[in-house]
Amino acid sequence: MLLIAVKANCQSKMVTIKGGTYTPLYGRDSLQVTILDFEMDVYPVTNKDFLEFIKKKSKWKKSKIIRLFADENYLYSWKSDTSLNKSQSLEAPITNVSWFVANAYCECQGKRLPTIDEWEYVAMANEKLPDARILKTYNEFILSWYEKPKTFNNKIGSTFKNYWGVFDLHGLVWEWTSDFNSVLISGESRKDVDNDSNLFCGSAAVGATDLMNYAAFMRYAIRGSVKAKYTMKNLGFRCVKDKITN
Amino acid sequence: MKNIKYIALLFIAISNFTSCNTKQSNKENIITYQCPMKCEGEKTFNEPASCSVCKMDLKPVASQSKKIEATNEISETSIFNLTTKWNTEEGKVIELKDLRGKTLVMVMIYTTCKAACPRLVADMRSIESKIPKDLLNDINFVLVSIDPETDTPERLKEFAIENYMDGEQWTFLQGDISSVREFANVLAVKYKQISPMDFSHSNIISVYNPNGELVHQQEGLGVDNKETIIKILETVNK
């Protein structure tokens, strides 16, 4: 009982995402991708959540982390291993974290990072529609966020609640995905990836399925340019979990 | 009685949490900064600032320590910090740190690949053939599968024999989906499954010194491997 209670405590709120088939900006051999039912965190992981995690797992403390797993900017603004800077809010999303630590965090909660396809599937919803990508207002909202400075210090829940009941996919921070390194748009990809004709910059925009979705294109471009140990002040994460079906 | 069991479990869980810190002070490296979009090519800066072209914040560039010392401790940038388990083509289960002590030349491939992998494998063999025979004992050529579901140890063994890569100096590794993803991230290799049989992936051959620190990456297919070979010879444990 005790163990279950402890476990339930550190679980953040999740909602069920009903699976389906959709056309992402970049697909596989067929354009359509099928998503199974899964559960997603309602909010991005916060500074507070992360603080609790780091108290238990000292391997990931700012002073302990090894350079293989995070660059020099890891938890850049934190005052110490276990305290934030005055200007940082406990309720703001955690940022300046690498893919390795995001991955470890979700694993510790019995969850995992979402795949790109899962993340994009949920993120194409607005307040009312599961797929709002055709709406001009949807794209304008996201692009206007990209122009706003310092949204990473806003509190979670300060943007809109989407069709699935998920907050802050757009408007606060970018988020890590488990397979971000499957996006083959990168400096290297120009010369060394064997099958990148539809994944490289200029030609990519033409090869992509939806020319209007410039915001999504920017997200793929960011994923293609980061490495797993990079940490950025506007890049956080949230976790998902497979839906257990009876 | 039941409660005691749970409490004991909890203690085990807590003690697990606190058992993994390996930290070594290694702060002599000079940090340089670079635009993440490489607007100005490979240009680096000594101060953190923003890029004059795209205005993004400059990112620190990992500078490699010039001197390779044979120390007992595993350094911060060593791939031997990864604790995942791998199956070899000989059916053994190993961790990466079991490969310690030899220079490692690593590449990620999958055996059903028809396009780039045969050429990548040819590049690996070409490198191997240019190494003096008496040094081969100190080098391990490691091929890691990005398709762990298809590439079982048996399949990897067959592939090794077919391609005349069954000698002591060759090692093939099968992980699982998450360990392969993590390993690719360490190598900065990108890959994506584009159909059940096909993957798109970066063509990178990486050289690690006997302590598991990256010393060189060769990018592209059929490129001149002179520099790669020089780097390998430099790092071989004498």
Care to describe what's here?
The complex is a heterodimer of chains A (246) and B (238). Residues 1-10 and 186-207 of chain A have low confidence and may be disordered. Chain A has helices spanning 2-9, 47-56, 99-108, 116-123, 136-147, 189-192, 201-207, 214-225, and strands spanning 14-17, 20-22, 33-35, 38-41, 174-175, 235-236, 240-242. Chain A has 246 residues and is an alpha+beta fold. Helix content of chain A is 29%, strand content 9%. Chain B is of the alpha+beta class. Chain B has helices at 2-17, 117-129, 153-162, 177-187, 226-235, and strands at residues 32-34, 59-61, 85-88, 93-95, 103-109, 139-145, 170-174, 191-195, 198-201, 204-208, 214-219. Chain B has a seven-stranded mixed beta sheet with strand order 4-3-7-6-5-10-11, sandwiched between helices. The chains are: A alpha+beta (246), B alpha+beta (238). The interface between A and B is large, with 48 and 52 residues.
Shape designation of chain A: globular
Number of helices of chain A: 8
Share in β-strands of chain B: 15-25%
Which residue ranges of chain A are poorly predicted, with pLDDT under 50 across at least 5 consecutive positions? 1-10, 186-207
Q: Ends of chain A: how far apart?
A: 23 Å
Superfamily at the CATH H level of the largest domain in chain B?
Answer: Glutaredoxin
Q: SSE order of chain B, as H and E?
A: HEEEEEHEHEHEEEEH
CATH structural class of the largest domain in chain B? Alpha Beta
CATH topology of chain A: paralog of FGE (formylglycine-generating enzyme)
Q: Strand order across the biggest sheet of chain A?
A: 1-4-7
Domains counted in the coordinates of chain A: how many? 1
